[in-house]
């Protein structure tokens, strides 16, 4: 079997909360031999072109240090102040500074320089996410003829949003340097195809469109998932039970409505709090009967928009507390920290309602994890945004428009009072779906398609 080379912005084990994804990719790598490559997390005075290798938990990990200036342009700048907001349709939150693009390309070229000496001709290379769109172009320039696949973890933007990104034509050409481009959802594949339609309309109207030759590159949706069996086991582990019992005691019979997110404007947190406020406003009888817990540890907090969303959320939580709290009852607990996967699993299992209401999200793994953690005899209800990739597969969730506070509040009410039989029925189908879309199946089907040794499973974007 060919070796597998995984490339992502960060190497595993250096992020605060190791999610299911890192675990799953490590498992895939362990089964195939190869290495994982990315930024070390450290800074250097001058750009480093030589990878350092170490073995962590039996896995080979290669990395390079970046200069502070390059990292700023590549990561906080082009990746997270332009690509992230634009791909999530938040053009109002983009901060376009043209020099950031140079840093973005420089880091991709540096990654390619550091990788090339360590590649063997039959290695399969799997590149992850929007930070590294140009990597295949850079590798091809260095005469790398290997199979190279790219997986986009976030949504693909609509044509207008794409057009607002500086150098978007180059980024599209970068995509066709890959053999396979994987998206989360059919919606993303449709958005990609739509760009071509958009340009044709432009031509018909007398404009000079940009024409993308897609060549042999295959574009396809591969929805990511979790490891539901492992997560279900985790949800009854001693650590999960400890969390479950502690919170259950504190709740004293109240129904827990739970949200777990990175603190990011794409997750729809102020809108979610506003919907909860509506729930309390419209249903006086629920006021002492429910309690919302929102866990949202800060992320990317050197970027201004992340400070703004943090302040907004503080103020929304304060508003609801001031409006509804009583000396012996608080409507909401807001926690800004990360928890171990087992503690989270215990909380998911306790929660009567799991709120996953992003304004736009590639997939959303919290939805998968919440389902997997439920007690089959007394499962909770998932309230899910139609704008999460997860909504394409989890049809038995209560699907909501997160921009509509009344609709979201009504779904929360339905979830809180839903009879046991209906909860069980919905949960059984959801769990079957979570199993069918496990992260192992995701990695296997992507790699099979990349190796060209299996018929592809989804719709492909015609040339
Ligand atoms: P994210 O935007 O980070 O991922 P998500 O898919 O929800 O979003 O993954 C979050 C992960 O972090 C989950 O595994 C969750 O358990 C964990 N997590 C969240 N809050 C936590 C906390 N307080 N403590 C500990 N762990 C916490 C991006 C895309 C998504 C896509 C994933 C994977 O934005 O759309 O689903 O990649 O492709």
UniProtKB/TrEMBL annotation:
Q: Which PANTHER family match?
A: BCDNA.GH08860, TREHALOSE-6-PHOSPHATE SYNTHASE
Q: Which organism is it from?
A: Pelagibacterium lacus
The record's listing under Pfam families reads: Glyco_transf_20
Q: Write out the similarity annotation.
A: Belongs to the glycosyltransferase 20 family.
An example molecular function term from Gene Ontology annotations: alpha,alpha-trehalose-phosphate synthase (UDP-forming) activity
InterPro entries named in the record = Glyco_trans_20
Name used for this protein in its record: Trehalose-6-phosphate synthase
Biological process per Gene Ontology, one example term: trehalose biosynthetic process
Q: Which Gene3D superfamilies match?
A: Glycogen Phosphorylase B
């Amino acid at each position: 079997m060919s070796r597998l080379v995984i490339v992502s912005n960060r190497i595993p084990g250096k992020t605060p909360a190791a999610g299911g994804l890192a675990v799953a990719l490590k498992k895939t790598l362990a089964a195939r031999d190869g290495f994982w490559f990315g930024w070390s997390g450290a800074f250097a005075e001058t750009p480093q072109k030589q990878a350092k290798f170490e073995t962590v938990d039996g896995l080979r990990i290669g990395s390079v240090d970046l200069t502070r200036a390059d990292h700023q342009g590549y990561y906080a700048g082009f990746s997270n102040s332009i690509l992230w907001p634009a791909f999530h349709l938040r053009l109002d939150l983009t901060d376009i500074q043209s020099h950031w693009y140079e840093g973005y390309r420089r880091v991709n070229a540096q990654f390619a320089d550091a990788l090339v000496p360590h590649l063997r001709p039959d290695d399969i290379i799997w590149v992850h996410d929007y930070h590294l769109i140009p990597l295949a172009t850079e590798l091809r320039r260095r005469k790398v003829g290997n199979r190279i696949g790219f997986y986009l973890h976030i949504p693909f933007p609509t044509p207008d949003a794409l057009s607002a990104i500086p150098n978007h034509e180059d980024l599209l050409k970068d995509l066709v340097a890959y053999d396979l481009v994987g998206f989360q959802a059919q919606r993303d594949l449709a958005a990609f195809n739509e760009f071509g339609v958009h340009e044709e309309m432009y031509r018909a109207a007398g404009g000079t469109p940009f024409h993308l030759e897609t060549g042999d590159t295959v574009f396809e949706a591969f929805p990511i998932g979790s490891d539901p069996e492992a997560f279900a086991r985790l949800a009854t582990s001693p650590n999960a039970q400890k969390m479950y019992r502690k919170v259950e005691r504190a709740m004293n019979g109240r129904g827990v409505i739970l949200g777990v997110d990175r603190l990011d404007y794409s997750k729809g947190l102020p809108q979610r709090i506003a919907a909860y406020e509506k729930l309390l406003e419209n249903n006086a009888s629920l006021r002492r009967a429910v309690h919302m817990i929102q866990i949202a540890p800060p992320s990317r907090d050197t970027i201004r928009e992340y400070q703004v969303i943090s302040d907004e959320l503080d103020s929304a939580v304060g508003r609801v507390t001031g409006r509804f709290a009583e000396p012996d009852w608080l409507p909401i607990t807001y926690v800004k920290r990360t928890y171990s996967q087992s503690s989270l699993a215990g909380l998911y299992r306790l929660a009567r309602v799991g709120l996953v209401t992003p304004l736009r999200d590639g997939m959303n793994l919290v939805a998968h994890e919440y389902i997997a953690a439920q007690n089959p005899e007394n499962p909770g209800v998932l309230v899910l945004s139609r704008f999460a990739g997860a909504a394409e597969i989890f049809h038995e969730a209560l699907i909501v428009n997160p921009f509509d506070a009344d609709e979201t509040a009504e779904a929360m009410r339905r979830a809180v009072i839903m009879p046991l039989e209906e909860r069980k029925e919905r949960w059984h189908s959801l769990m079957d779906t979570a199993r069918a879309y496990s992260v192992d199946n995701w990695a296997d089907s992507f790699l099979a398609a990349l190796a060209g040794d299996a018929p592809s499973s989804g719709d492909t974007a015609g040339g």
